[in-house]
Amino acid sequence: MQQPRSGFMEQMGQERHAASRTPAELRTGFLGFGMGPTKAARFMIQFGLSGLKARARKQRWEEEVELLREEMKRVLRSLRWTQNQWQVRADRQRDDVNMHVAAGLRAYALRQVDIHRRMAERFYSEWGRSLANAVRAVVKEDEGVLDGAFDGLTDNDMQIL
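That's the CxC2 domain-containing protein sequence above. Prediction below.
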């Protein structure tokens, strides 16, 4: 005859996944693991708050990504509109100035068309990179900041409880 299992490690071997357990069952598991009732309750509160904070951060980042994508579309539209405006100016017949000034104005307008076209192409190619490549580029730019992010913190600072 099999003896009933008890204790935290045996509970981990049960068929029910930890995510499907009730908070009371989880607290019981923590108590069996050597946590007192106060420490187990604090852990549960901290664990719950951390999850809520992480979810809020994720939602803010998703919103930020959505806003950035819309802003990128608007920048490209603006560059296209400006390019078209300069093209209209370049194609305009200028009878109010002599032909040398008109040629200079046309050359300037065509140069502006080219500048705005190249800016739009560059933005489009940069923004079209894969997410992984974009993250690598940002991390490479910020590696000095990231390296020093945890300097000066003690092990005590890093603990949850």
